[in-house]
Amino acid sequence: MGTALQLGWQLATRATGHGRLRSAIMALVAAAGTLAVLALGRLVLATADTSDASVMLGGESLVYSRALTGGVLLAVVLPVLVTAFAAGRMSAALRARRLERLRLLGMSRRSLALVGLGETAPWALGGWAAGMLLAAVLGPALSRLPGADGVSQAGSAFLLAAGLAVPMMIELGALGPGLLRARAHRVRARTGVDASPSPLRVLPLLAGIALLLVARQEQLGNGAVIPAFLGGAALAALGTVLLTPLLVRALSWTLVRREPPSATIAARRLQAQPAVQTRIIGALMIGLVVATAAQGLIAVVEQLPQYRAVEHAREVEARAESFAVPAGTTAASLRSELAEVEGIREIAVVQEALAPGLPGPEPFPEEGTSVVVSTCAELLIIQPSLEGCRDDVPQWILYPPIPDMSVPQEGEAELRGTFDDSGEIGPHIATVHVDETTATIGPLAGPWQNPDLAGRLYVPRGLLTEAEVGALDSVRATVVADPRDDLVGELRAAGFTAHAGYDAAEFERWEHVIAMTRLLTLVVLALGLGGFLLSLTDRMLERRTELAHLRLLGTPVSTLRRAQALEIALPLLLGVLLAVAVGSLIADGYVTLGNRGADAETAVRLAQGYQVVPVLGAAIGAGVIVAVSSLGLGARLRPEMLRRP
C-alpha cells in the first residue's frame, strides 16, 4: 500500500510539464470550487433562513422558497462538482495507457487505484484546505451583507459536506483508470460520448414541456395545477441535461455533411468528444435553466404591492399614516409638531364618523355608512386619483373596479362618533342631507395608493360647525415626505404612532434575494465556461500530435482555427439557447400560475429581455475560449510535437 502511494507521489512530483500543469489545475479547481460552494452557499442559505420567502399564487395556493433555495444551490454546486470531476479526469487517455503498462507488469487493480490516489490526493486536499481557509477569512465580510444574518446548523453541515465533495469528485475522476479495466477505459476516453445515444433521451424534456403547458390551462383545478407545474419544471430541467449527448451527436451529423474541411474536422472531433466535456455542458445548461426560471420569481416579487411601495418611497415620495392623532388636530397644528422631521411635503388630516341608519353603496354593508370629514385638498393628498370632489356638498366616493357598486338613495345622514373601547357607537354629532352626488377614484398609479376611501361618505369640513368638528374624536393623518428609507421610524422618534403598508426590512431581504438570483446567472456562466475551458485545454495538449500531422499534410492554420471555433461555439451556444428557452418557459409558467384569476391591471408580467444576459455571456465566453484555445495553432512545428505521448 505504501509503495503504491509513494509511486503515485513520485509520478506527480516528477511529471512532465503537462503533468505539472495538471496537478496545479487540480489544486486550483479544488480551492476555487470549495470557496465558491461555501461562500455562495452561505449567502443563499442565509437569505432563505432570514426571509419569509413565500409568494401568493392566485390568492389561494402557496409556493415556498425552499424549492427555489434548493434549485439555486443545485445550480451553484453542480457545475463546481462537474468541473472538479473534469479536473480529475485530465489526461485520462495518457494515464490509462501508463496504468495499463503497470498492469502488464503485474500490479493489481487495487494498487493502481492507490497509485492514482497518491498522484492526485495531495493536490486535491491541498486546494480544498486553501479554499476552506479563504472561506473562513471571508466569512465575517459575507455575514455583513444585507439578508445574510446567519446560517442554521443544518445549513452549515450541508455546506461543509458540499465543500468536501469537491476534492472527492476530483479523486473520483482521477481514480477511474484504476477502478475500471484499463483497455475499456482507454476506449471510453477516446470515444467519449456513446456511439449512438438513445433517442429516448428526449422524452423527459417533451414530457416536462407538456406538463408545463397543461399547468397553464384555466380549467385545471388548484389541487392539480401546482403538482403539474413543479413536475413539468423538474422534468424539463432534467431533459435538458439528458439531451446534451443527442445535441452533440446531431451537430456532428450536420457538420459532417457540410463541404468545408473545417466542418468535417469539427464533426469528427465532436464525435470523439470526451463524455466529461458533455457533462460540463449539461451542468452549465441545468444551471442556466434554474437561473433563467428564477426570473419568474423576480418578476412576481418586483410587482408585489409591498415591494413596489417601498421602491416608490425610496425613489419618489415616502408615505406614512398615524391613527393615534389627538381630537381637534388640524393639518396646520400637525405640521408644527412635525417640524423636527425634515422633508415633510404634505399633511392630510381626516376625521371619521359613522352614519348607522344610512345604507351605503353595494356591496358595502347596508346597516350603516363610514363617513370621512375633511377637505378635497386633503383627500387629494391621500387619494391623488380622486375625481369630481366638491367642498360644498356631501358626496359618495365610488371606485369603478369594484363590481356592481351602486349609488345609494338620497337621505339624511346622522353623524355619530366611532366605536369606543366598550364597542358602543358614539353619541350624535350632526345631521346632514345626502343626495346622489358622487366623486370617483380613478385608476391607481401604484400600490402606494390604497382605494380605502371607496364606498364611504365624504362630508366637507366646512359644512359642520366648529363644535361639531371638535366632537369628532377619531382622527388620522397621512404624511407625505421626500424619498427616504424609514419615514415611519422618523415619525415614531418624533413621538407619533406611525405605520405604513409595507415593511422596509422585508424589502431589503427580497432585494438581496433578487441580487443573488441575478448573480447566479453570472456564477453559473463562469463555472460552466471555466470547466469547459479546462477540459478543452487538456484536449488540446493531448491532440498536439494530431494537429502537427494535419499541418504536415497541408491543412491551413486558418482551417484548423475555424474547426476549433465550430467545435467550441456550436455546442455551447445551442446548449445555452436550449437552456434559456426551457428556463423561460418555466418562468412564464410560474407567472401564469400566479396570474390565475387576476385581471389585466393586476396581472404580473415578465420583464423584457431578461434572457439577454445568459445568451450574451455565453457568446462572449465562447469567443474568449476560442481565442485562448487557438493561441498555439500556428506555432512553428517542433520534433516533440510529432511524438505520440
Task: Break the fold down into its secondary structure elements and pairings.
Blueprint: H1 2-13, H2 17-50, E1 54-57, E2 61-64, H3 66-88, H4 92-104, H5 109-143, H6 153-174, H7 176-179, H8 182-191, H9 203-215, H10 222-242, H11 244-256, H12 261-271, H13 275-302, H14 305-315, E3 318-322, H15 331-337, E4 344-355, E5 369-374, H16 376-382, E6 386-387, E7 395-398, E8 411-416, E9 428-434, E10 438-441, E11 457-460, H17 466-471, E12 474-481, H18 487-493, E13 498-499, H19 504-542, H20 544-552, H21 557-594, H22 612-629
Parallel strand pairs: 5-11, 7-10
Antiparallel strand pairs: 1-2, 3-12, 3-13, 4-5, 4-12, 6-10, 7-11, 8-9
For the largest beta-sheet, the strand count, sense and barrel status come to: 9 strands, mixed
Shape: elongated
Using only C-alpha atoms, the radius of gyration works out to 34 Å
The oligomerization state is single chain
> Would you count the extended β strands for me?
13
Percent helix range: 55-70%
The largest sheet has its strands arranged as 6-10-7-11-5-4-12-3-13
Can you give a write-up of this model?
With 645 residues, the chain is α+β, with helices and mostly antiparallel strands. It is 59% helix and 11% strand. It has helices spanning 2-13, 17-50, 66-88, 92-104, 109-143, 153-174, 176-179, 182-191, 203-215, 222-242, 244-256, 261-271, 275-302, 305-315, 331-337, 376-382, 466-471, 487-493, 504-542, 544-552, 557-594, 612-629; strands at 54-57, 61-64, 318-322, 344-355, 369-374, 386-387, 395-398, 411-416, 428-434, 438-441, 457-460, 474-481, 498-499. The strands form 3 sheets. It has a 9-stranded mixed sheet. A two-stranded antiparallel ribbon has the order 1-2. β1 (54-57) and β2 form a beta hairpin. α3 packs antiparallel against α13, α5 (109-143) runs antiparallel to α6 and α12 packs across α21 (557-594). The radius of gyration is 34 Å and the shape is elongated. The two termini are 28 Å apart. Residues 50-65 and 177-194 have low confidence and may be disordered.
